Amino acid sequence: MTTTVPPASSGPAPAPFRHELYPYRGEQEFLSGTLGFIHEALEGGEAVVVAVPSAKTALLRGELAGEGAVTFIDTATAGPNPGRLVAAWATWMTERGEGNRPVRGIGETSWRQARNPAHLAELRYHEWLLNRAFARSTAWSMLCPYDDTDQDPEALAAISRCHPLIRRNDKNAPNEDYLAGEDYVFEALAGPRAPSFELRYTRGDLALIRSKVSRSASEAGVPEGGLAQLAVAVTEIATNSIRHGGGHGTLRTWTQNATFLCEFRDAGYISDVMAGRTRPSEGQIGGRGLWLAHQLCDLVEIRSTRDHGTIIRLHMDAEH
After folding, report:
1. Tell me, what's the pLDDT at 2?
2. What is the largest CA-CA distance in the chain?
């Protein structure tokens, strides 16, 4: 099924998409804030989609037994790559918003279970992208609980910059820390760890690229299923790089902390921050390479500027 973000309906303009951060400490504060948000929705005839860690799901189920307007989602079905979550949320909320019914989402990320610093950085970027992805989705709103038990001001500030609103005492208010109207500031990419394979490629080198990556990934311990998926992703990214990146680029591969990394660098520029994050429409010609990479790889990092070109890193889990 192809899922797209629904356009604003005709008639009086409803409230814009609301993206709220809810810092809390302890189970009781979690329940107080999320249940308040849910009851607001139910009183207004809205549906609710809840995607939170399993322990929090159990808490909410105990308070909402038999409430048919609330749907609980296992986010593990989207896989480990945060680059899949925008499309997943579009699907979940569209399915619950039949007949233009307003929908509220509650999504809590397990920040402390991030697989590595790169994964943590992409989780934060996903939160920022939600504002772009659903800016015109006036029937939707989302609450993002954040466990502030550790009281780490830097961590809270980093995620706060991604949310236009902040909820306290069952009310939301503008979040002064939000990066309104600004480009997202990425963390610097960590350099490759030795040993690293490097290849300058150009037109006609696609078979060589696939061969080199496949051999390096196999030696790194990527399982057979992962090798097949990586081959498709590499083909898509290398083809795009040659076609849109000036006809040539640089490939590097290395292994780091049980992860195989494959990096493409070229002179191209990707202007669309949502590239690869939304499901291609049926019959769409082109524009599927980054989407496939996100679906097939465990993580995808993209850095692209007009001055310095594009870097795309594909991550695949290795067994040793």
Report:
1. 31
2. 61
Please state at what angle helix 224-244 crosses helix 289-296, rounded to 10 degrees.
160
The sheet that has 103-107: what strands, in order across it? 70-72, 47-51, 103-107, 140-147, 18-24, 165-168, 171-174
What local confidence, expressed as pLDDT, does residue 253 receive? Answer: 97
The pLDDT value recorded for residue 320 is: 64
Pairing of strands 171-174, 299-305: unpaired
Q: Percentage helix, strand, coil, to 5, in the chain?
A: 40, 25, 40
Q: Which residues contact 185 (CB under 8 A, 6 or more apart)?
A: 179
The H-assigned helical ranges of the chain are 27-43, 54-63, 85-96, 117-133, 153-160, 206-220, 224-244, 289-296
Residue 289 · residue 277 · CB < 8 Å: no
Q: Catalogue all structural domains in the chain, each as residue range(s) with its CATH number.
A: 18-174 (3.40.50.300), 197-317 (3.30.565.10)
H-helix or E-strand containing 22? Answer: strand 18-24
- Which candidate, 113, 87, 64, places its Cα nearest to that of 1? 87
93/73 Cα distance (integer angstroms): 11
> What's the predicted TM-score (pTM) here?
0.90
Dist. CA 205–CA 95, nearest whole Å: 43
Cα 121 from Cα 184, distance rounded (Å)? 11
Q: Please check whether residue 209 is in contact with residue 240, taking contact to mean a CB–CB distance below 8 angstroms.
A: no
Phi, psi of 42 (to 5 degrees): -65, -40
pLDDT at 10: 35
Question: What letter represents residue 221's amino acid?
Answer: G
pLDDT under 50: residue ranges of the chain: 1-14
| CB contact at 8 A, 102 and 47 | yes
The angle formed by the CA atoms of residues 18, 24 and 25, to the nearest 5 degrees, is 170
